[in-house]
Known about the structure:
The complex is a heterodimer of chains A (234) and B (304). In chain A, 32% of the residues lie in helices and 12% in strands. Chain A is of the alpha/beta class. Chain A has one domain: Rossmann fold (3-Layer(aba) Sandwich), CATH 3.40.50. Chain A has a five-stranded parallel β-sheet, with helices on both faces. In chain A, helix 1 crosses helix 4 and helix 3 packs parallel to helix 4. The longest helix of chain A is centred in the middle third of the chain and has 14 residues. In chain B, the strands form two sheets. Chain B has a seven-stranded mixed β-sheet, with helices on both faces. A five-stranded mixed β-sheet of chain B has the order 7-9-8-11-12, sandwiched between helices. In chain B, strand 1, helix 2 and strand 2 form a beta-alpha-beta unit. In chain B, helix 1 packs parallel to helix 7, helix 8 packs across helix 12 and helix 9 packs across helix 10. The longest helix of chain B has 15 residues. Chain B is globular. The chains are: A alpha/beta (234), B alpha/beta (304). The interface between A and B is medium-sized, with 31 and 31 residues.
Amino acid sequence: MTKTTTNRGYGYADLPGLMGLMSGDEKHGPAATSTLDALWVLYDRVLRVTPERADDPERDRFLLSKGHGPMAYYAVLAAKGFVPVDWLPGFGSYDSPLGHHPDRVLVPGAEIGSGSLGHGLPIAVGTALGLRAQGLHDPRVWVLVGDAELDEGSNHEAIAYAGPAGLDQLHTVVIDNSSASYALPGGIAARFEAAGWSAETVDGRDHDALYAAFAAPHPGRPRVVVAQVEPKTA
Amino acid sequence: MDTMRDRFAPVVSRLLDEDPRVAVVLAEIGVAGFEDARHRHPDRVINVGIREQLLVGAGAGLALTGLRPVVHTFASFLVERPFEQVKLDLGHQDVGAVLVSASASFDWPSGGYTHMSPGDIALLDTLDGWTVHVPGHPDEAETLLRHAVAAGDDKVYVRLSVQSNAEALAVDGTRFRTVREGRAGVVVAVGPMLDAALAATEGLDVTVLYGTTVRPFDSATLRRATETAGTDVVLVEPYLAGTSTAAANDALADLPHRVLGLGVGRRELRRYGQIEEHVAAHGLDAGSLRERIGGFLGADRVSA
């Protein structure tokens, strides 16, 4: 997989500080950082998108479906130059473009607005279909969902369609922090696999494992990577 | 006579041929009509199965990549069931689509309440920026479908019905049309209600406006009509009674006026049967309309 690394002068070690500009504290619990490593590996090593390419039809699309707790997302967007760092301290205020759920109209680099759970995956399916219909077979579509977000039935409409439809441009990252009240071990990957997806479950804090899972080929099938992190309630 | 829905697939199939931006998204309903088009445009005729949240969400995704999605199923499953997708995946994402519904308020009465959607336009009224077309004849449906697809990236709803007027009128996708002029009241008949409204007001001294594009509401034409016909206004709509009452009130806000909103009642009838029986049950047949319109305007005053 081609990788595009944009060095904006910030690295992974700077992310807690960037998040601190929003929270007022450099220490963040597992809930605030559950997505952080997956987001970093995607933006640093996988996604072929830069601020300069934000409107390029050939860019990769990343759709943050799990819009709750977006500080990690904003920190990564700031580190990669999509969002000015000096926007971060205003997080959640009336004049700030950075809300507690992201709005694509306000946030440079955000492909969708999210917050209501279960919308990103169906939109990602449509995005993959739209690219295919225009002969854009190279760009990849990534959508990040939470494990409890998969409770929403709309996801299952998308999962059950995308496999048989062979949408191999579509990729889902499930951040599994055991926040679903009703779940069985291995259930997430099994549901995707039953619908014909290529699936892998990895340690959501291990950057090399995440990268390997993100970069693995999956011809003819959509791909899901379940990234396991500390339980939300731990 | 063929129906509006009979025109839908042929018209949109031609638009698929003409415009590479157009894509059709279906949820099993209406798939057969697009079989030829699907062979010509396999990636732009999409059937997502019986999945209406995905139907609208996928339409939004197509729009995000620059396409012009035409999304179709029964009104109940296009507007009501996935309403949050309509609100968020289109409105909040700031993308457009053409939603084309079939079965209207009670096109299939023997199918019962699950397939009736008298509230579709009232629901869309809670959202910003929707254009709503309610054709009253298959020819008008064809014209308005073309308008809808050509409307840039606008959010457009086209409400198709098997109910129809006998003759088509020229429609422009924007304005109400004056079909009769009088001095003692204004009747706005929407879409398939025109024939009944004209029959009901035969011999009455009223202006009859014909609306096939109801959102944005054509306040200017209504106001102009009231200059000679006075500010007693009756709305005759083929969906939930009173849907446009607020719009008519707003149009006349600075004038003393009265508005009567006629349409489909809220109460669930729990009846099957025929369309005509439901028309009558909701008081929308010509005889009932004449009584209600005459009563509101004062029949002795408006008799020409």
